[in-house]
Amino acid sequence: MRENKKNICVIVHNYFPYTETRVLRQVESLKALYNVDIICLKKNDDKQFERFNGLNIYRIPVKYKRSLLLFRLVNVLHFFILAYFKLNGLSRKINYSVVHIHTHINFLVFIGIKQKIKGVPLILDMHDLLPEFFQGRFQNSFFKSLYRLAYIEESISCHFADHIIVVTTEAKEALIQRKIKSEKLNVIMNLADNKKFSKVDVNRKSATIGLDLLYYGSLIWFYGIDVAIKGVSLAIKTCEKVTLSVYGAGHQKEYLIDLVERLHLNDNVFIKDPIPPEEIRLLIDQNVVGILPSVFNKHTEVQLPTKLLEYASMEIPVLCSRIPILETYFNSDLVEYFKSGSPVDFSRAIQHLCNSQKRKTELSKKIALFNKKYNWAKEERKLLSIYEGIANT
What we know:
This protein is of the alpha/beta class and 393 residues long. The chain has helices at 21-30, 69-90, 113-117, 130-137, 141-144, 147-160, 169-177, 225-235, 253-262, 306-314, 324-329, 343-354, 357-366, 368-373, 376-391; strands at 6-12, 34-41, 49-52, 55-60, 96-103, 122-126, 163-166, 185-187, 211-218, 242-249, 269-272, 288-292, 318-321, 336-338. The protein has two domains: 6-191 and 375-391, 3-Layer(aba) Sandwich (Rossmann fold), CATH 3.40.50; 204-373, Glycogen Phosphorylase B (Rossmann fold), CATH 3.40.50. It has an eight-stranded mixed sheet with strand order 3-4-2-1-5-6-7-8. It has a six-stranded parallel sheet with strand order 11-10-9-12-13-14, sandwiched between helices. The protein is globular and about 65 Å long.
């Protein structure tokens, strides 16, 4: 039974709710004012329809593919077709005030073409800038000839959408330079939900010698986990009790497991399966330091990683690559930087933290300054303001 509220439909080419924390944060903020329907992918054991915490989830029988580019595109097209018919089927009974498409592939905004013709505004929520993502991820010379297509796809999709949401000011500025109208663009940062990633109270004074480095997320080459593993292999020569726990999945996983074996790090580095975000807090103790060893490239130069924002929300010390966009938001008082892509400098940073409990304590305290300036409560108000202006027109 629907409440007497306006209806919105959110479309996401991923599994929901557990893998799309950005989408989950937004819809949990919106559901108090709107009836929220979500169209997403379906795993084998997922229900085709589910009522979840006040949200209506409609799952499409398509699985997320991490395979070759061609098969990925076929997968996206499959989702496009089924989601198009699902949206229009629902709209026969439900009048939507907004259709909100969350995606890495921008042309999925055309799922809403029939709704746009009916006068329903479309929001394109760009989790990444596709050309930069494409250039950062695919380094083979064969793909360079396709970069131009990514710019064309982005331009057509952005001009078609009524409103566009991006995750950083830097991404907004990049789109403006590409002739996207600034009045279409809004920034909703990918900040952590303070309820799920609240401060972890640990007694830093009781910390023992050593470091427990922590990484969770995708295992893709430009996230630099191999750099971290090689750095650990250097650091353990002079620093006692250094461990690295990696929770994740991705193309590099088998390579990373093999790298650990070749460097004889089985007692120091542990590659584990992904865990739900809400369980991350349970791993935090007085010796834990979050790491973000991303490699600087076209993609990471405009990306403010969610992981770093979650570390900040939990107020744990962070060791991360020196990348210009990160320095814009986090100065060297807030995080411990090392040279991007350098195992040697990563090792130096480990040794610095190993030898200075005072530095770890300072990092834990000072990163809280970021949370005062940037937090989900502020972004939530911006999101609701955007919707108020769109849904009530």
